[in-house]
Amino acid sequence: xxxxxxxxxxxATVKQFSCKSCGNALSAIHPRVKQVGCPYCGSLxxxxxxxxxxxxxxxTPGSHKPFSFIQLGMKARFEGREYYVIARSRWRMNYYEYWxxxxxxxxxxxxxxxxxxLLMDERRTYFYLVEDDDGFWRSDEIIPDSPAMMxxxxxxxxxxxxxxxxxxxxxxxxxxxxxxxxxxxxxxGEEIEFASYNxxxxxxxxxxxxxxxxxKEVEFFREVAISRRRILEAFxxxxxVDQLKETFEKWTFVLQAAGVSFLLMVILAIVAMTGNGREIxxxxxxxxxxSEEAPAVMGPIAISxxxxxxxxxxxxxxxxxxxxxxHAWLMDSDKQPVNSVGDNFYWETGYEDGESWTEAxxxxxxxxxxxxxxxxSASVYASADSEGTVTLILYKGPMMSRYYIIAAxxxxxxxxxxxxxxxxx
Length: 425
What we know:
By secondary structure, the protein is of the alpha+beta class. It has helices at residues 228-234, 240-274, 401-422; strands at 15-18, 25-28, 35-37, 43-46, 54-57, 75-78, 81-101, 104-120, 126-132, 135-142, 155-156, 165-182, 191-199, 201-209, 215-226, 278-286, 296-303, 307-317, 322-331, 337-352, 355-361, 363-370, 374-382, 388-396.
């Protein structure tokens, strides 16, 4: 495709005229421009005649708004060269996409919408900036040394030294909207056939056919992903980008702060789940000889501060394949129960299918908040015929992991939201 941008001296000859449909001012900088799509009303006008008559209605611009801030006439700098945005084409893809999962693979039918922005510099070189909901790709035309169309085995390569690759996508794309200038005939509903494969970058071919369905043109392209941040940098000479950059920097700070807070909350949650706080009391007794009728009395247990405490029962079984129900009551100075902890403790082992197994429940705990201080005691009892040792432990100041987990989830939500807000397009 022959294209170009006028130099500063040549811009005096830029074609300027009014849209015959809506009256808005239009211009074209390509020396051989044939048609201009009005971005205000969607009319396609003949740029070569003096009358600039309307050739076709391409659609309502409001129904085909760009995905981002990019507009016709904007400047962009890529690889040290200044480009101008002179056209946008919107395409609807009906295609097949390769998938592979759990040893199965195949092609699923998909529908997708994307834009192609045409950017040109003063040396009349150009490239397409492809944009969709997922991001941006730079698409440059290439000349393959081994051009090929879609084979039956769907293995494709355009270069002799490039191994064959699985075709990732193939199908058709239909032009549904156009704005800007073009040096070829624009036709709403025009279709292209394409197929693409990945070899580091994405490689694809596009086939245009004539009215009789015969191949009229085939072009080969390489597409390279471009980050949204790089797009902002490329278009920073445009005033409309300043606010976007401020938004990006503000929400990047929020994202980073939320990310650091998330990591901190995760660390604290792990510490809370694995740590017990400061031990202030520990005593052990034999299980044999204690029962609900004759419990073991432990204490005194001094609680000198109000706050969060953790009451723990640990049982050491004397023999395997045994169990015992053990319960402990924490009593105040008036022998009134304050809190309790208890469970069915067991230690079991065995063999199954030639392999040994072990199951055990040897510890139980209870978090509680002490609302008063003083001297406390504990009453501990076990089920009859229990063997082993029970240890009662009281910890001061354990951390409650659920609060840190909730905070971590909230920080993850904030980080996700901030990442979305960094790019308001």
